[in-house]
Amino acid sequence: QLQLVESGGGLVQPGGSLRLSCAASGFTLDAYAIAWFRQAPGKEREGVSCISSSGGTTNYAGSLKGRFTISRDNAKSTVYLQMNSLKPEDTAVYYCAARRWVCGGPGNYDYWGQGTQVTVSS
Question: What pLDDT, in 10s, does the model give residues 79-105?
Answer without folding.
Answer: 999 999 999 999 999 999 999 999 988
